[in-house]
């Protein structure tokens, strides 16, 4: 459940290109704060270089809802589920989209067995309108029951509702307590979001060291957003000693989990051999992947690589296509504009057609 997705910190990245025969370099500058995020309080020197900040949470999404049970197993008959506590037919039904069945089974478990996982499931179903009419108040009630029974997923979900004001009045103090309790019980999403609150300096006093500790907990548990954020901390020396090698290892882990921002930064590290052995072929492959995921920064970097032929075979049509696509998304590049004006009218027409086709497909 990506309720507080970390926005890219790479909006100001630059890459120098001194001509077609010169070696290009991908060099990330200082990070910039996410657009629209709450302004963080400024620290006394040395000042953190705009670490990630929390955004207003949104309603839980069914595709990535916190799992109200252990690792799913093949579902036996409903009767067997109550004989074997390790079998979770409720979550099995939820995974298969059988929401009404999941609702009925969870209701039975919650009412007759006092099962906190079933209570969290009912909260999810009500919050997302799955198998039942959406009702934030009932969702919050079931999350509260689950949290009172000690379920860390219920605590986390209720905290996000209290932050957003869904299902009741906004209550940041209660949200912080719930996130802290859930994080203490090992919920990585709670640790990550609590770290963001320590960064924005509004709900909690800004404390980048405490934020770094919480990010480390979430990163160690495999949360890719936390891995990317902590990598930024190590790269800039924010709340932790500056350590490029650790930063790159975290970027690699997050990129393997398909975090697009991490894919771009890790590609840059691979291209330049920063904190990792140089591998331009792998870097370009990652840039292609991120470009196809509509990262304007990746599209711009890939355009430069393809136009110059440094790190990949030269392909000006494809390269300028990505330049136009990135420019349309707000990532302009005057130097590539100049180079684009130098190619033939026929090639420019091919580029425009390819870019138009990609943009039309991406917007569907």
TrEMBL record:
Disordered: annotated span: 28-82
Biased composition (Pro residues): 59-77
Presence of keyword Iron-sulfur: no
Coiled-coil regions listed: none
Keyword annotations from UniProtKB, A to Z: Signal
Signal sequence range: 1-22
PANTHER family attached to this UniProt entry: ERAD-ASSOCIATED E3 UBIQUITIN-PROTEIN LIGASE COMPONENT HRD3, SEL-1-LIKE PROTEIN
Record's protein name: Sel1 repeat family protein
